[in-house]
Structures are given as structure tokens and as C-alpha cells.
Amino acid sequence: MNDTVIVGVDGSPPSLAAVDVAAREARLRDAQLRIVHAFSRPADLDPMIHGVLAQAERRAHGIAPDLEVARTVASGGTLTVLRSESRHAVLAVVGGRGRGGFGGLLLGSTVVQLAAHGHCPLMVVRGRPDPRGPVLLAVDGSPAGNAAAEFAFAEASLRGAPLVAVHVWNAWSEPTPYEGPADPLNVVVDLDRLREKHRRLLEEAVAPWRAARPRVAVELRLERGRIRHTLLDAGRDAQLVVAGARGHGGFTGMLLGSVSQALLYHADCPVTVVRGTQ
Predict the structure, then answer these.
(1) Which residue, 23, 85, 93, 129, shows the most beta carbons closer than 10 Å to its own?
(2) Is the pLDDT of residue 49 over 90?
């Protein structure tokens, strides 16, 4: 995989704000920044190249003057172009709103498909401007969550930020073995045992990456409640939320886990979705 961060630009203010974030990410990684634009009408090409893309490049150099910046302009759909570019990237960055192109990914299903089928982690720039705080890792113990943990620890290390690993559990979503009449009133949940089970899951999920990056300050949070609501609430104090593309508890057949989708649409800070090994 090449050391390249790609950012999708369509000329909208959110997509240009994404350039700022992508430039910082590229600078942190000592990587190249590639500004990407997809077009469908040739008439739009010349003003985009000489106007918006030049502006995006100037913004990137304003963030990191020594950054190597390249441009890619390709004919095709948003998903096709950015997915192809992601083959050669360590990170893809897009804005949360825009004109229906890269910056407007969240207006449709493209961002879900890109997060689920792209070839590198996808960062969606959204929420409050210039967020501060820890890197927040959503832990669920799944293979995708394992890849997300690796990314989150690396990101916290690059940013010099603490990491908060949150695992949310509840009794009603837990499969409970029961032998007897099918009466839900007969099901008794041992909450202490269940809490201990999830505490171990949280500790084991972060242990390898905690050992690999001992300088990252780590806080473990075990929360009982509604998963999406709890993670969104925790994200209000974070500078970045990291989640796996498809974790436990998602609905069968979904391209992207329901929790990750909720974060992409509603988080108060940028969100990175990381795919696990398929």
C-alpha cells in the first residue's frame, strides 16, 4: 500500500474543509496528498481544474507547506472513482455534506458502499469544527473491530492524543440460553456475570495494541445502555471516532453495520470506518 492520503473534492465548503483534515493526516504520516475529483460532464472539467482544485491545493499547502500534493481528475461515478483510488491509499477523506459529489456522500448510499467496500479506511469529516479531545474507539470484539483498534491506536499515537476505548453492552441484546417453556418471563439474566464477560471482551480487544503502543494513554469505558446513543454521546468530547465497518449486532445483509452508519450520520466529530480482513 502506498503512503498516500486521498481526499474527494467537489467544490463545496465541506469538501474543501475535508482538504484541511486530509492535509493534516498526510503530514502526520509523512505521506503524499492526492486531491481527487470525479466528473460526468466535460463542460465542468476546466473550471474545476483551474478553480476548485487549485484552491484545494493552496489550502493543503497552507496547512502543510512542504506537503507533496497531486491531483487526479477522472470521468465516472463518485463511488467508482474513489474506490479505485483507495487501492493505493492509506486513508480516504471526504466531507460530510456537499453538492452531491464527494462532499455529498452522506446524502445517499455511496458513503455506506465506500466504507463497506473501499480498500482503505474512510474518514468522513463532520460535526463541530476543529474538534479536540481523545480518539474514541468503538469496541465490539469483532474482526472489523480488531482492525479499527489497530487504526485508532496508530491515530492516537500520530496525534499525541489519549485514546478512550468504549464498549457498550445491554442485557436485552444478549443471547440467553434457556431450556424450558418459551416464556420470556422465565428468562433470568445474571447481570454480574454478563458485565464481567463484556469487561473481559473490552480488555482483550485493546490488549495487543496497548502493548504495541505503550506511550498512548488509554482509558477503558464499559457502558451499559443503548449502543448507538451511548457512542454518539461519548463522541461529543472526542476529536475522532473510529469504528469497524461491520461488527457484532448488525443486521444480516447490511453493507455496513448499523452502529457505524449511525456514527457516520450523527456523530459530533469526524468518523473513520475501518474494514476488517475479509
Answers:
(1) 93
(2) no
10 Å Cβ neighbour count for 16? Answer: 20
**Cell digits for 239?**
476529536
Which letter does DSSP use for residue 52 in this model?
Answer: I
CA atoms within 13 A on the CB side of 124: 31
Contact of 126 with 271, CB cutoff 8 Å:
yes
Closest CA to 70 of 151, 4, 134: 4
Q: What is the per-residue DSSP string for 116-151?
A: HH-SS-EEEE-SSSS--SPEEEE--SSHHHHHHHHH
Q: Which pLDDT score, from 0 to 100, does residue 143 have?
A: 77
pLDDT at 30 over 50: yes
The x, y and z cell numbers of residue 171, run together, are: 442485557
DSSP letters for 250-262: PPTT-SS-HHHHH
Q: Output the furthest CA–CA distance in the chain (Å, rounded).
A: 72
pLDDT value at position 250? Answer: 45
Whether residue 31 contacts residue 66, with contact meaning beta carbons closer than 8 Å, is answered with no
CA 79 from centre of chain: 17
Residue type, 131: P
Of the CA atoms within 13 Å of residue 109, those in its CB half-sphere come to 5
> Looking at the DSSP assignment, which residues form a beta bridge with residue 163?
135, 218
Cell numbers at 235, concatenated: 463522541
CA 251 to chain centre: 19
Rounded to 5 degrees, φ, ψ at 43 are -65, -25
The mean pLDDT of 52-68, rounded to a whole number, is 95
Within 10 angstroms of residue 40's Cβ, the number of other Cβ atoms is 11
Left (φ > 0), alpha (ψ -120 to 50) or beta: where does 166 sit?
beta
